[in-house]
Amino acid sequence: MFTFHNIRNQKIALVSRNGKVVRVLTAGSHWIYFLDKVEIYDMTQAFAPKAELNIVLQNPELAALLEIVEVKDAEVVFCFVNGIFRQVLTAGRYAFWKGITVYEFLHADLSDVRIGENIPKFLLDLPVVRSMVRKFFVPSDETGLLYIDGKFQGQLESGMYSFWINNTTVEVKCVDMRLRFLEISGQELLTKDKAALRITFFVQFKVFDAVKAISENREYEKQLYILLQLALRQTVSALVLDDLLSKKDSLGTEILSEVKNKAYATGIELCDAGIRDVILPGEMKDIMNQVLVAEKKAQANSIMRREETASTRSLLNTAKLMEENEMLFRLKEMEYMEKIAEKVGTISVSGSGQIVDQLKQIFSK
After folding, report:
1. Burial of 229 by CB count in 10 Å (0-12 exposed, 13-18 middle, 19+ buried)?
2. pLDDT tens-digit map of 229-242
3. Is the pLDDT confidence value at 15 over 60?
4. Measured between alpha carbons, how far is 354 from 281 in angstroms, rounded to an integer?
5. pTM
6. What is the Cα–Cα distance from 299 to 329, expressed in whole angstroms?
7. Closest CA to 195 of 305, 101, 285
């Protein structure tokens, strides 16, 4: 006995007998022996047989209609249907119908932490893929150093970088390449004359070689700090306090020239340096203030003596001129009489007319 089956377009039927595919039926009408089992599949969908795929593929007619995709361990395959992403295939064996739908398969090796350039970036942001990817961001004005399994691999410019998640360790160290300041504050130092003081020193620097600074040196900022600290101590200990205070503005340049080559060897360029603060102890401040007051008093006394000498010399010159010129002497008398008269409010004259005659005689000489 036979049964009738009508297979529609884009459908396909597998006829199996005792678990083995014996016929493949395409679109059309077919008579099937009643004891045979018929399974109908949609050719626009992936082929998902109810039996083991390896057994089903033993039929050569069926195998010719299918595209087989094998996904190995530590591998994923991105499946695109008609150019549109459809799914991610993990380790296993998959079958897809040929002829109806256009399938594309993109293999990605997860054993290599580096993501191939053939993998579109938008795939990495898909929720199903995000858990497989680790990302590192290198900010603007910084450079990144890539280490894989602890080994330096190269420099990374600013941007986002993605790597597959596996047993390999990946590290990205970011290095700021901008101009920065380093302050050495509160350094308690002794001058050559044993004067104790506290100095705050600053330096302006930038990293010009990130590989030298990070890969070839450990804690480059700490090394720079120690270099400057030692140079500052050496410079201060070679100066007496007065010289230190007088050369305070130029000491930064001297220290910079001493440390510049050593810092350059670590990938650091020093741009500027200087002493910001010099703090003296309380007793030393009092002594310095007393010295300053004494110096100002001495300057004031010197100025007063110069002025007195100049005034006396001027009087002497005037006296010599009046001695040689009687008219000049009389004019000087009149000048003083005028000054005296300016301070007199009223004059009361009493007595005989002789007083008037005497005044006439004084002013008529």
Report:
1. middle
2. 999 889 888 888 88
3. yes
4. 80
5. 0.65
6. 37
7. 285
